Amino acid sequence: MSIGEMLAATVPMVRTLNLEYLETTPERAVLSLPDQGEFHNHIGGPHAGAMFTLAESASGAIVLAAFGDQLSRAVPLAVSAEIAYKKVALGPVRATATLGRPIAEVVAELDEGKRPEFPVAVAITREDGAVTGEMTVVWTLRPNG
Fold first, then answer.
1. Per the CB 3.0–4.6 Å rule, which of 14, 65, 110, 137 could disulfide with 59?
2. CB atoms within 10 A of CB 123
3. Contact of 74 with 141, CB cutoff 8 Å
4. What element of type H or E holds 63?
5. What span, in angstroms and rounded, lies between the C-alpha atoms of 58 and 17?
6. Rounded distance, CA 54 to CA 31, Å?
């Protein structure tokens, strides 16, 4: 089962918004939010909450792709999130997430008994490639026990 399939099966908001996992690797996660009238805002584009969920979901997908092999000893948790809406989004939108720190560096901190934190940057784009929003989610790997 792919990370996208697993998240779609276990995270109700992913199913509610019909998010599509286009790419999920430790280097990049790309998700799509289809154009759906029931999630439109007052100007006919995707609601800010739907775009937030799209971007946060992309950040979670890359975290699982990058650190899934650490799940036996730590749980990934979002610590904070900041989003900026840059341009009007109409139609389907796509979120592309990238890690802000090297995987080995984060795992080394975990090996030292620390609770590492790391940012994930997410760009939200329209079909024409224009960036409609940017989000940064800070994640941690909380050691078990």
1. 137
2. 18
3. yes
4. helix 48-67
5. 13
6. 7
